[in-house]
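TL;DR need C-alpha cells for one chain.
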Amino acid sequence: VQLQASGGGLVQAGGSLRLSCHASGRIINIGPMGWYRQAPGKQRESVAQITSGGVTNYADSVKGRFTISSDNAKNTVYLQMNSLKPEDTAVYFCEVAHVSLGAGEEYVAARSWGQGTQVTVSS
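>> reply
TL;DR here they are.
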C-alpha cells in the first residue's frame, strides 16, 4: 500500500491549506487514518485522527482550526487547516491503518505512512 500526500505549501499567518492523502494498492479495508507533523528539532506529534466510522480526535493546539475528514470510497483522508499560525510550520505526514492482500493472497493488516508534505506559515 502506498500513500501519496499533497497540498502543502507556503502561506501567511491566518491563511488556509488543505492536505490530501490517497492510499493505493491491494486494499481490502481502510481503518483509522491520521495526520502527524514534525517541526525541525522536535519529535513527531499527532495532529488529528479519524476512525472508519467518522469519529475524530484533535491535538489541543489545533482544535477549532483544523478539520480532518475522509472519503472511504476514495481511500483518501483530508486535513483542512484554517487560521494557520507560524507554529504550525512542519512536515505533515499521513498514516493509514489498512488490510491488504499480500503476495500469497493472504490478508495483511498494517499501517503505512505518506512521504510528508511541507507546510510553512510565515508571520
